[in-house]
Write a structure and sequence with these properties.
The chain is built from ten helices and four strands; from the N terminus they run H-H-H-H-H-E-E-E-E-H-H-H-H-H. It is mainly α. It has a single domain, classed as Fic-like fold, CATH 1.10.3290. The strands form two sheets. A two-stranded antiparallel sheet has the order 1-2. Helix 2 packs across helix 3, helix 6 runs antiparallel to helix 7 and helix 9 packs antiparallel against helix 10. The chain is globular, with a radius of gyration of 18 Å. The two termini are about 15 Å apart. The mean pLDDT is about 95.
Length: about 260
């Protein structure tokens, strides 16, 4: 049995994902790690207090606070969409991006027109990012690429109920790879790609995973390696290992809390 299949079965058998408040608190952890990759220094504990009690960490900048609050709202909407298995469309992606960038997005005036990140507008300029400043697809190609991506997702998600947990996780990582490689927006592409990755996992009834901030460098390297090679395998392999480690931490933490052993 694949390690991800085995760990997913263990989590289900132990009922870890059915614990009171597990989903909400786990999503807070996901948000903390996702924004940390983008430069946020808010800790899980600081986000927990801010999300639950409205008490903002005075020592942290306003942009960091808003980045985390906006992503929390985007995740709440995404969870509703995942439960309803709402089809992924370009307008839906733009609406989610608008939530992600609601209070931190910038507006741009370009030769092609104006675009506003806070409204989820697709980029109207070319961008480069990552190791070596590698360029992403020409902005004029983005609408068609994004439409093709949505069609690809619709086809793949039709069979999600017949996939094993490992296959569903791999599909979610492919989703991440495909979207971030298009880079539809001027900013927020990483957060959006990880959010959509988690949406696929939630639709498949799995515990959503994340990239630990301490593995940020390895994550970016794996992504860059795959994009240069135009082959997602290096990224998918990294993500499979990262996800398995995250799930193992969930199992180990639960067993430690009850003083038990992994069920046979």
């Amino acid at each position: 049995m694949d390690r991800l299949d085995e760990l997913a079965a263990t989590i289900t058998k132990l009922g870890i994902d059915q614990q009171v408040d597990f989903e909400r608190l786990h999503v807070y952890n996901i948000i903390t790690h996702s924004t940390a990759i983008e430069g946020s220094t808010l800790t899980y504990e600081e986000n927990l207090v801010m999300f639950e009690n409205g008490i903002v960490p005075a020592s942290k900048g306003l942009t960091e606070q808003l980045m985390n609050l906006d992503l929390k709202q985007a995740y709440e909407v995404m969870q509703q969409l995942a439960r309803a298995r709402t089809p992924i469309t370009v307008p839906l992606l733009k609406a989610l991006s608008a939530l992600v960038m609601k209070n931190t997005g910038s507006a741009y005036s370009t030769m092609a027109g104006d675009c506003d990140e806070a409204k989820g507008d697709l980029r109207l300029q070319n961008v480069s990012a990552g190791v070596g400043g590698r360029s992403y697809p020409d902005w004029r190609k983005v609408p068609d690429l994004l439409e093709n991506f949505c069609n690809w997702m619709a086809e793949r998600l039709q069979s999600i109920d017949s996939l094993t947990p490992a296959e569903t996780y791999r599909l979610s990582f492919e989703t991440h790879w495909q979207l971030v490689s298009i880079h539809p927006w001027s900013d927020g592409n990483g957060r959006m790609s990880r959010l959509l990755m988690n949406m696929v996992q939630m639709e498949g009834g799995l515990v959503p995973t994340y990239i630990r901030n301490e593995h940020r460098s390895a994550y970016i390297t794996a992504l860059s390696t795959s994009q240069v090679a135009k082959d997602p395998e290096a990224f998918l392999s990294f993500m499979e290992g990262e996800a398995a480690d995250i799930l193992q931490e969930q199992v180990d933490g639960y067993l430690s809390s009850i003083g038990g052993n992994t069920p046979s």
